[in-house]
Amino acid sequence: MVTSKTLTIESVNPANKEVLGEFPVMSESQVKEVVDGAWKAFEDWQIMDFGKRARYILKLRKIIAAQSEDIAKLISQEVGKPLSEAYASELTGTLDTCVWLADNAERLLKDQMISLNSPILSTKQSVVAFEPLGVIGVISPWNYPFSIPMMTILMSIMVGNTVVLKPSEKSTLVGIKIGDLFKEAGFPEGVVQVVTGDRVTGKYLSEAKLSRLIFTGSVEGGRKVMQQAANGIVPVTLELGGKDAAVVLPSAPVKWTARGIAWGAFTNAGQACASIERLYILKSKNSEKFLDELVNFTKELKVGPAVDPNVDIGPVIDQVQLDKIKNLVDDAVENGASILTGGGVIEEHGGFFFEPTILTNVNNSMRIMREETFGPVLPVMIVETEDEVVDLVNDSEFGLTASIWGKNLKRAEDIARDLEVGTVYINDCLFSHASPQLPWGGIKQSGFGRSHSHFGLMDLVNIKHINIDAAGGSSRIWWYPYGPSRIKMMAGGLQAFHGSFPFGKLSGLCRFVSNMAKKPK
Ligand code: NAD
């Protein structure tokens, strides 16, 4: 919540509305000063060898592992997720990233030699080097307040960049903790810094002198950030929302699949960009049985404050989010949807709780099937054919992930190749954000660019091409002077390589050779 008169933001525990702290909305000049500091730090950090940077990162890993319980509790307190989720989706991925980068970054960013296949370029040798870009701005959301910024920061600094992070105004405490962890690990001043504030501070950061801006958040925020960064021609990576679909094939084991889908829909109270937000069950003798199993399992899930270790689903982040979820469910019901379980706000705990909800009698024209709900709500359709299912999954403005569930892996993979998304899981969902080796990102309004993996590293470096010619002194056929015989020679050469066999090539070769010795003009 922003308190406008004092320009501060409050962090609020969503499980009981307790105010956890108040922090400054940093001004334009403060953000500029921090970015200037990051450029200063870049001077030395960029030339440090990989081994030394890896040692800093491995030291950080030790510190995070030692404090993992406190970090998990802090995350749980500030954004409401159960501790199991804080460990699995926030800490594991971050720690794995430290190890993966320390073990692999140098190898993945080694110079690459490139051979040129044209004989007229035979004296040349190309080398591609991967160099740090400079200062990376990271603007992050509250739903994974630790792992999302952390994994991006680690990737950025491992390749020699420095970072300024603007955490979400709804998870400032976790953001500040991230900055403190880097300090404790002894990183040189300015390598990783945190600026606090809301979207106004985010605006200042996206307008600052950056080498790249990595934004994770809503489509609306991403669109604005892209415009703000455009003035400085700052490239952006956008990791935006999703309306991710799951497809259940007739071969899917009923019980096991129902558990997997329920987790994908309700983990983090449904507030994951890659949550399962639409379910399509291919019609079979099992489809009704599957739906019953899913509903019964959902009824068993325990909703409440995450201080209770038996809780499966915590609160949603705030009143705005709660109202949005309720509004989408009500809209679906008004348009003919039926509630199989859930559907309402839970008042008893005093925080922002919503029942895990399953809806049927929905169709792709309803808002609940098109807009990101970001809550524990799963609308379900039973569909007749595979072709129809592919069309329904692709009938979305979003394209982040999808999942297909079934034992017939060949069918599942065939369908996977037809889906317009960045990741398809077969028999799982969501997990891969925490695997640093795997590319993460979407298409359509889910954004562009990739984070994590070798491909993510490529977005964080200047891919510098250096071409060396060993034959200094000899002229090039594309240099001046031009003239009729030069044109004939080039036309002949082109046919000799690319013309039809044998006559085109032979006549081309003759024209090339006969004009080679002539003066161009
Ligand atoms: P949000 O867009 O409201 O805010 C995200 C961050 O951007 C915050 O730090 C916010 O202060 C900042 N911000 C917002 N508007 C800005 C602007 N105009 N200029 C600069 N900064 C601005 O999103 P949120 O509510 O924090 O996060 C939820 C959204 O994030 C969902 O849509 C979710 O799907 C998406 N998300 C995507 C991924 C992914 O990997 N694709 C991961 C997590 C969350």
Per-chain topology:
Blueprint: E1 2-3, E2 8-12, E3 19-24, H1 28-45, H2 50-66, H3 68-79, H4 83-108, E4 112-114, E5 124-132, E6 135-139, H5 147-158, E7 162-166, H6 172-184, E8 192-194, H7 199-206, E9 212-216, H8 219-230, E10 236-239, E11 244-248, H9 254-266, E12 276-282, H10 287-300, H11 319-334, E13 338-341, E14 345-346, E15 353-354, E16 357-360, H12 367-370, E17 377-383, H13 386-394, E18 398-399, E19 401-405, H14 409-418, E20 423-426, E21 443-444, E22 447-448, H15 453-458, E23 461-469, H16 484-498, H17 503-516
Parallel strand pairs: 6-7, 6-9, 7-8, 9-10, 11-12, 11-19, 12-17, 16-17, 19-20
Antiparallel strand pairs: 1-2, 2-3, 4-5, 5-23, 10-22, 13-16, 14-15, 18-21
Bound molecules: nicotinamide-adenine-dinucleotide.
Describe the 3D structure.
Strand 7 (162-166), helix 6 and strand 8 form a beta-alpha-beta unit. The termini are far apart. The protein has 521 residues and is of the alpha/beta class. Helices cover 42% and strands 20% of the residues. It has helices at residues 28-45, 50-66, 68-79, 83-108, 147-158, 172-184, 199-206, 219-230, 254-266, 287-300, 319-334, 367-370, 386-394, 409-418, 453-458, 484-498, 503-516; strands spanning 2-3, 8-12, 19-24, 112-114, 124-132, 135-139, 162-166, 192-194, 212-216, 236-239, 244-248, 276-282, 338-341, 345-346, 353-354, 357-360, 377-383, 398-399, 401-405, 423-426, 443-444, 447-448, 461-469. The strands form 6 sheets. A 7-stranded mixed β-sheet has the order 13-16-17-12-11-19-20, with helices on both faces. It has 3 domains: 23-110 and 132-240 and 454-464, Aldehyde Dehydrogenase, Chain A, domain 1, CATH 3.40.605.10; 244-433, Aldehyde Dehydrogenase, Chain A, domain 2 (3-Layer(aba) Sandwich), CATH 3.40.309; 475-516. The mean pLDDT is 96.
